[in-house]
Amino acid sequence: MTAEKNDPFVPRLLSAMAQAGAGPRGQGPLSLVHSRVTARSRLYFLGDGRHLPELVAKVPITDAPSEHPPLDAAAQYEALRRSHGWFQGDDRHAVAEPVACLADMGAFVMRHAAGPTVAGALSAAPRDPTAALRAARAAGDFLRRFHDHGAAGYAEIGLQDLVRELERDAAEVLSPLRRSLPPAVVAAIRRTPRAWLSARRVVRHGDYVGANLIVTGPAGVTMIDPAMSDVGLPEDDAARFVAHLAATSAFVPGVVWPPLARLRRRLQEAFLAGYGPLPNPPEVFYLRLLRQHALRWARRTELMMARRHGPRMPVQRLVNDWHMQGLLHEAGGRLSHSLRGGGQGA
Predict the structure, then answer these.
(1) What is the three-class DSSP state of 74?
(2) Extents of the domains making up the chain
């Protein structure tokens, strides 16, 4: 969705940026190039009149309905500033440069990072699998480095706590849509032992998906949006990325076309290979992945229900349900395999 150029917020934003000294590197006056509204923020792309954006002003929508509502502008700016510092001098990756925090406007400004997104590369995987595999591996490598920078020690967690959170959240989002976890997946979840473990904790990105990563080289990405940056399990970020990848519309036909499903699994494996061994036992990852699949199923279903009804909509909803149930079965099977001592896989 695009905001109009006559948005009354824009002149106020430009004035606040001028007062903060957040201007283009060129000599021309700062002006709006284009804007975009997402579920979590309003984005204003600004430049010096050459129709090329140099700066991006982000206004978080902090009351957006979400599993984790985004941080306010000041907190996101601080997260961006910290992350940018972590990756200065990195040999592959970068974080968008923070420019100014406009807390009174509920906005912050960062340098624009040009290039295609990792999400775009993944969506184009059926046409260019090589580029998609490179992007997935680079995303995994970036996330490992991000977590290494944000290492936050260890804490005791109970596997049954993760099970209860998964079952609670899945029921909360799926029941109103008349959907539920498949019985075989529920059975796999409930075989999780009552065990405690010392789990590694890190500063989490909070919304680690391909849309927040720009491909900037054969093995490099630039992160543009640390959404939450609180402390938690590294598997949360990894599971969110894999779940968003797996639910990409380009892979939904894989439910009836096996080569597409195999490509999707190769991309998941490339991402996890880029990250390297996850620090906690594999069942932690699969429990978090099952939770993310349930959340994505609910979100995709809500979006489909909000669209106008057409002759193909019932079939599209049915195929979507089959695809998401298949992802849940796949992750549930991996969880069962892990509990039998089989280790981690995609």
Answers:
(1) helix
(2) 9-111, 118-339
* Beta carbons within 8 Å of 71's beta carbon, 6+ residues apart: 60, 62, 79, 227, 228, 229
Per-residue pLDDT reduced to its tens digit, 152-184: 999 999 999 999 999 999 999 999 999 999 999
9-111: in CATH 3.30.200: yes
The dihedral over CA atoms of 234, 211, 99, 42, expressed in degrees to the nearest 10, equals -120
Chain center to CA of 67? 12
The CATH number of the structural domain formed by 118-339 is 3.90.1200.10
Tokens standing for residue 267: 């991309």
- Which pTM does this prediction carry? 0.92
> Which pLDDT tens digit goes with each residue over 188-205?
999 999 999 999 999 999
Dump strand ranges (E) for 170-329. 196-203, 213-217, 220-223, 231-232
The conformation of residue 281, written as its DSSP 8-state character, comes to: -
The token duo for 251 is 């892979």
For the purposes of burial, counting CB atoms within 10 Å of the CB of 93, is it exposed (0-12), middle (13-18) or buried (19 or more)?
buried
| Phi-psi map region of 174: left, alpha, beta (phi>0 left; psi -120 to 50 alpha) | alpha
